[in-house]
Amino acid sequence: MKAIVLEAPDKPLAFKEVDKPTLAPGEALVKIKAAALNRRDYWITIGKYAGIKYPTILGSDGAGIVAEVGSDTDKHLIGTEVIINPGYGWGNDPNFQSDDFKILGLPADGTFAEYVKVQSQHLHVKPAHLTWEQAAAIPLAGLTVYRALFTKGKAKKGDKVLITGVGGGTGAFALQFALAAGCQVFVTSGSGEKIDRAKHLGASAGVNYKAQDWAEQLHHLAGGFDVIIDSALGDGFAKLPDVCNPGGRIVVFGGTAGNIPPLNGRKIFWRQLQIIGTMMGNPDDFKAMVDFVNEHQIIPVVDEVFSLADAAKAVQKMESSSQFGKIVLHA
Ligand SMILES: NC(=O)c1ccc[n+]([C@@H]2O[C@H](COP(=O)([O-])OP(=O)(O)OC[C@H]3O[C@@H](n4cnc5c(N)ncnc54)[C@H](OP(=O)(O)O)[C@@H]3O)[C@@H](O)[C@H]2O)c1
Predict the structure, then answer these.
(1) Which of 40, 127, 213, 271 yields a CA-CA distance of 20 to 30 A from 294?
(2) Where does 142-277 sit in CATH, by number?
(3) d(CA 274, CA 241)
(4) What is the C-alpha separation between 206 and 194, in angstroms, rounded?
């Protein structure tokens, strides 16, 4: 089969012939129809990710058709249209992942291939209202955002929610999920055009995080926020407590803009704020997220679709952060 392989730190991604995986009991082989990028794939290609090994087939997000199974008891799955939960080995505590937690696409070979081997229990029926490309966009970002907003951030109807960096794959999902839950949503972005797109999708207003006074502008537009979803950290993070309502929750799962500077800690205790870390999600979060997508007929924002052979170009686009929503590969 053909796959996108990361062969060495200093080599470009290779589109090459590799062996088709063989199955053990409990596993399934999915013929990939579409796969999607996450910033993780970019971090791995530039060597900034823990536990990188060579060679690896990248890709955590995938949608496709079950082609083979490793156990007779899973035979009914053959032919099913599926999306894949890429989080493996969560463990028993719903609050945090076990030491065995792993993500499809490193160390195990991922979805940027004609076929991927997964554990059958990680398969979920593809939402019927979505194309292959839209369905492939969901798993990692949808899961992370669902848990950040609802399981951890406790966002509910009527809450005021701020999404920082709305143009990213997770940012666009956060906007769509929060709107579907009946929240009033404000955004930041480094691009006025992306703020306009967010408003077109239903955001109330947005400000450019590159402006010196972005937090003051936001405060003027929105007052304070009950929930903030941030995957950037960086210098801007120090201003987030300033724009929180008392009792507000700032939920973080990424550090695209680097580490955080000193914070005014007094604001955190005086306003009884919570700064909450989260990581992808557990199997219950994934199931609840897929149910939510079906219930609200969410259609993920797909920025651009590249062919599998052009995965390197797709990663370059992610590096430039010029996308709005998810970058997808079709097999
Ligand atoms: N821990 C987890 O479970 C988990 C899961 C998913 C993602 N992540 C992490 O979360 C981050 C986002 O992932 P992604 O896949 O959505 O990446 P992505 O699609 O590449 O989006 C990154 C976005 O970050 C925004 N950004 C850049 N600098 C910013 C700043 N100074 N302030 C605010 N926003 C800024 C940009 O938004 P604009 O384009 O609007 O300017 C950019 O589009 C990454 O760091 C990723 O590694 C972690």
Answers:
(1) 40
(2) 3.40.50.720
(3) 9
(4) 9
Listed by start position, the domains of the chain span 2-138+300-330, 142-277
Among 296, 88, 281, which residue's Cα sits nearest to residue 180? 296
Atom number of ligand 1 nearest to Cα 167:
40
* Best residue for ligand 1 mutational test, from 37, 39, 96, 328 (most atoms within 8 Å of Cβ): 39
Length of the chain: 331
Residue type, 50: A
Expressed in angstroms and rounded, the spacing between residue 141 Cα and the centre of ligand 1 is 10
The pLDDT score that the predictor gives to residue 10 is 81
Give the model confidence (pLDDT) of 58-113 as tens digits: 999 999 999 999 999 999 999 999 999 999 999 999 999 999 999 999 999 999 99
Ligand 1 atom, smallest distance to 42 CA: 20
CATH fold, domain 2-138+300-330, is Quinone Oxidoreductase; Chain A, domain 1 (3.90.180)
Give the confidence band of 305 by pLDDT, cuts at 50, 70, 90: very high
What the block records as the tokens of 188 is 């930041």
pLDDT band at 174 (very low <50, low <70, confident <90, very high): very high
**According to the model, what pLDDT value does residue 326 have?**
97
Binding site membership of 38 for ligand 1 (Cβ less than 6 Å) = yes
For the stretch 116-138, pLDDT in tens is 999 999 999 999 999 999 999 99
Residue pair 129/299 in contact by the 8 Å Cβ criterion = yes
